[in-house]
Amino acid sequence: MDRILAVSVFLLLLGGLVGPATAFDPEIRRAYQTDPRACVELCETYLETPGLSDSSRIDVLLFQARAYHLLGERDRVVETLRKVATIDPDYELDGPAHGSIWREYLEVFGPALKHRPGISTVAVFDFKNCVTGDDREEWEGAAVVFARKLQGTLESSTTLDLVERERIDHVLQEFQLADLQDEATRVRAGEMLGAQSMVFTEVAKLDKDIVIVARVVETETSKILGTEEVVFRGSSSNGLPEIEKLGRALAEVLRAKVDEASLGANQYDAWVEYGRAMDSLRSGSEAQAFRHVSAALEQDPKFSQARTLFENLEGSAWMAEGVTPR
Fold first, then answer.
1. Which InterPro entries match (predicted)?
2. How far apart are CA 63 and CA 42, in angstroms?
3. Cα separation of 9 and 164, whole Å?
4. Residues 111-143: pLDDT tens digits?
């Protein structure tokens, strides 16, 4: 770590000439990508800054936790996240920005999403592929894209709080709740996730028709609150407008309304690239995520979710060899 730079920034902070985020964030981010050990040390220097706000302290601790992850020091990741918990026991991790440390986060904070007044928590589970025969593989991939699109549609509502995929995957894997067709299992999964409602969806093929059926289930009672269905023909790329229509219908069942201005794109390839970006983040590769989300915006510049993710990652654009959306 360049200690002269660290001391200089420290003095600037003491003098009130620059704000903490402006002074440190680019250097911490660069160290994180090029020298994780230096990033850990730089974060320690930053954390000693007098008058550092709780929100800034959490931001630095999260960078430090991610650096420990790159170093393979999982115990240190957990230890660092426990420091976050002492500042804010109910801290909600931003999935897109911190995909690599979700496992440790859930170990410290637990899988249940914290309830907020006036907000309904919903868990959207992966689509079940009921297509058989030679077409099954095509619709296996489409089911993943459709699930992301459905979640993106419901996320546009300001009165719904969707459980992150990381939480869902954690509960299913850690507690081996594979058979969600069982009523008792559904209730248990929903309770662990802190979800008030759950959405289960199936895709099937009947002759030339693709039929997608979704059920909204109340967690506490396992009562089916509503069932919605869409039907279309053709390739999987024709399904996204129907998934958006399905999302609107499910929002009504959940007594919510989608925000039309915040709806995502209906370009199939854009959603494929967006999904790859999210998967890259979970594996800890922000550079690869940036490339994929840039590709998504090339497919559709109006893709709002991709635009938000791009802006979150834009500070790391230098590491992606200058990739920018057209």
1. TPR-like_helical_dom_sf
2. 10
3. 36
4. 888 777 888 999 999 898 999 988 888 888 899
Q: 3-48: per-residue pLDDT in tens? A: 444 444 444 344 333 334 434 567 888 888 788 999 999 999 999 9
Beta bridge partners of 224: 217
Tokens of 137: 């593989």
If 0-12 CB within 10 Å is exposed, 13-18 middle and 19+ buried, where does residue 65 land?
buried
Helix, strand, or coil here: 240?
helix
Any idea which residue has 């834009």 for tokens? 314
- Token output for 302: 């109006």
CATH class for the domain made up of 3-91? mainly alpha
Packing angle of the helix pair 268-282, 304-313 (nearest 10 deg): 30
Strand partners, 212: 203, 230
Structural fold of domain 120-262: Rossmann fold (3.40.50)
Say how far residue 325 (Cα) sits from the centre of its chain: 21
- Distance from C-alpha of 294 to C-alpha of 309, rounded to nearest angstrom: 9
Give me the residue spans of the domains in the chain: 3-91, 120-262, 268-320
Amino acid making up residue 134:
D
Cα within 13 Å of Cα(12), Cβ side: 15
Tell me how far apart the alpha carbons of residues 129 and 263 are, in angstroms, rounded to a whole number. Answer: 25
Q: What is the CB-side half-sphere exposure of residue 24 using CA atoms within 13 A?
A: 30
Question: Once rounded to an integer, what is the mean pLDDT over residues 213-237?
Answer: 92
Beta strands 197-206 and 160-162, pairing class:
unpaired
Give 325: exposed, middle or buried? Use CB within 10 Å, 0-12, 13-18, 19+. middle
Confidence of residue 241 (pLDDT cuts 50, 70, 90): very high
Q: What one-character DSSP code corresponds to residue 316?
A: G
What angle (nearest 5°) sits at the alpha carbon of residue 305, between those of residues 57 and 69? 40
State how far the alpha carbon of 181 is from the alpha carbons of 152, 217, 244, 313, in Å: 24, 12, 25, 38
Residue 202 phi, psi dihedral angles, 5° rounding: -130, 145
